[in-house]
Design brief:
This protein has helices at 3-19, 36-44, 60-84, 88-97, 101-113, 147-155, 159-165, 185-188, 190-206, 210-225, 229-236, 272-282, 285-290, 336-342, 350-368, 371-374, 379-392, 409-413, 417-438, 446-462, 469-483, 503-520, 523-533, 538-545, and strands spanning 46-51, 117-118, 124-125, 170-174, 180-184, 242-248, 263-270, 309-319, 329-332, 345-349, 399-402, 405-408, 487-490, 495-498, 553-558. It has 562 residues and is of the alpha+beta class. Bound molecules: zinc ion.
Length: 562
């Protein structure tokens, strides 16, 4: 048993003895009509997959550093469990202590969700005795505190205290008189952050990479001082075979204000091969921009420095990263001051993308794609298109001029912005790869595979509806390209295929259409385009209906790092 495992057992024992029974008397029984079979059905939506990376390129000391970081993810789990809800750690401990097979199933599903609410079922509870509604303020605020109470309190505070109260890294609690106050994470989670900081320092001593050393020492300090700025900056400049992301980051779980950051960890190693490919593409970006199929006056004659992109393989995760659907890519940090001064970094988790591809996209392809073309669906073109998608976010119109006014695409497109921008990155990503294939930079053998793989991936994207930016942006592309003759439906097989004679022209036309709307900042045209094409038509719906048995996501199983 490692130190941190021992530690979490101790924490469980401690909280059971101190508090006696579980809050709200949560027993190992399920909620409402959830039966053992339905729990099994819920679990089956996540297909277990082993996730690992090639560690042979790491020095012995880096490998030892890596195992320290993997150990630290367990402490991140403990913090996150506590952040979800005030009774969460106790329910977790009760489940850990129950060794009946029934208990094991519930524990399994609890661990997938990192709490008693089922993420894929609109946060319905699946354990009895827990609140019917997941607390919108999580455990960041006192139970029962209203938004109004918080606002009228924080408004009266002096500047510095107010920024603490509304900041990322404090929880709000009540004192004995019932008054609100802010407590820094460094105090609230000290029992976990002190040993985590120790592990980070040990890893820092072990590694020979100076950038990684700096980041780990600074992040360890941040855990204890609650000031994350310097360590976020160091993370931005990291250039190391081990790429760790560990700390308080995303604020989605604070549904009251979106202020408080949940703890998570992604311990990853850099994928050298894909990083090389990325570098190769990057050297052609200005050329791609100059050749975009739009009016030359909208072209950017000198692309600025683009945000860094890292391709990595996941080795371990912790905290929020475990909960529900697995992250395949992320952009951090969120702190606007760091972003303003140093930009942000995009991390692509290649082995997670590959696991999702094999477990979900391949079965989708067999249901959706004409049998003659299904064999062209492959991971290499899939991932190469993801790289192109990410790079294309940096090309095309960004700062624009509307009626003599300097503005940005994002500002003018308002709530339609993300769907349009995602569609742009997808379709112009195909355009860019075709351009590189024609120039001989990318192998010709990828050409057909790329279009068919992309068609298959569209069904995965719209599978869960068009009320989210990616789904809506995909429906737009699917219907537009079908209308242009790029995709054809076969009534007999009830499947789609790519028409290789027309797809290129369709891709160019749609790239032009979207980028021109963006360059002109024309909100009404964007609304019309998405209104016309951003829908699911019957042929597509019939295929989506056939996908119900295919897993929704993966449940990652990590190989231990020795
Ligand atoms: Zn994107």
């Amino acid at each position: 048993m490692s130190n941190s495992q021992m530690f979490s057992v101790l924490v469980c024992l401690l909280s059971i003895t101190v508090l006696g029974t579980v809050r709200g008397s949560a027993q190992v029984r399920t909620q409402g009509d959830v039966t053992r079979t339905t729990i099994d059905d819920k679990i089956r939506r996540f297909v277990p997959v082993e996730i690992s990376g090639d560690l042979t390129g790491l020095s012995i000391n880096d490998r030892r550093a890596l195992s320290k970081l993997v150990e630290a993810t367990k402490l991140v789990d403990s913090i996150f469990l506590r952040q979800v809800w005030s009774g969460n750690s106790q329910v977790h401990c009760t489940l850990e202590a129950n060794d009946s097979p029934w208990g094991a199933d519930i524990r399994h599903y609890f661990n997938i969700n990192m709490g008693p609410w089922s993420k894929l079922d609109r946060d319905e509870p699946f354990i009895g005795g827990v609140p019917a509604l997941k607390p919108p303020g999580a455990n960041f605020y006192p139970e029962g505190m209203t938004k109004e109470e918080f606002d009228s309190w924080q408004r009266e505070l002096p500047e510095q205290e107010r920024s603490q109260a509304t900041g990322f890294f404090t929880v709000i609690r009540r004192d004995n008189d019932g008054n609100l106050f802010a407590r820094p994470y460094s105090e609230e989670y000290r029992e976990f952050l002190e040993p985590a900081a120790q592990l980070l320092k040990e890893a820092a001593v072990l590694t020979e990479n100076p950038g990684l050393k700096t980041f780990l020492f600074l992040r360890a300090d941040a855990f204890l001082t609650n000031d994350y700025y310097q360590s976020d900056v160091a993370w931005m400049h990291l250039n190391s075979p081990i790429e760790p992301t560990i700390g308080p980051y995303e604020t989605y779980m604070d549904e009251l204000f979106g202020n408080k950051a949940a703890f998570e960890a992604f311990i990853t190693i850099r994928d050298e091969e894909e990083s090389g490919k990325l570098e190769k593409f990057s050297s052609h970006l200005q050329e791609i921009e100059n050749n975009l199929p739009i009016d030359p006056r909208y072209l950017n004659s000198s692309l600025g420095k683009l945000s860094p992109i890292c391709v990595v393989d996941e080795i371990a995760i912790g905290g929020e990263a475990r909960a529900g659907v697995q992250t395949a890519a992320f952009n951090l940090p969120n702190d606007e001051r760091v972003v303003r001064e140093h930009g942000s970094k995009r991390i692509l988790l290649k082995n997670v993308q590959e696991a999702k591809f094999r477990q979900i996209l391949i079965p989708v392809a067999f249901s959706a794609i004409d049998p003659d073309q299904a064999a062209l669906v492959n991971f290499e073109p899939f991932f190469t298109h993801i790289l192109a998608h990410e790079l294309m976010h940096g090309l095309g119109p960004n700062t624009i001029n509307v009626g003599g006014r300097q503005t940005t695409v994002r500002q003018e497109m308002k709530e339609l912005g993300s769907a349009l921008e995602e569609a742009k990155a997808d379709v112009s990503g195909l355009f860019a790869l075709q351009f590189l294939i024609d120039k001989g930079v990318v192998e010709k053998s990828l050409e057909r595979q790329m279009y068919v793989t992309y068609l298959a991936s569209m069904f995965r994207s719209v599978r869960f509806g068009t009320n989210e930016a990616h789904g809506l942006g995909t429906a737009l592309q699917f219907n537009y390209l079908t209308q242009e003759g790029g995709f054809a439906y076969d009534d007999e097989t009830q499947r789609f295929s790519v028409n290789f004679d027309t797809i290129r022209t369709g891709v160019s036309k749609l790239t032009r259409k979207i980028m021109t709307i963006q360059a002109e900042g024309d909100y009404n045209k964007a609304k019309e385009l998405l209104g016309t094409y951003g829908v699911v038509k019957p042929e597509m719906q019939a295929i989506l209906d056939r996908l119900s048995d295919i897993p929704v996501d993966i449940e990652p199983l990590f190989a231990p790092v020795e």
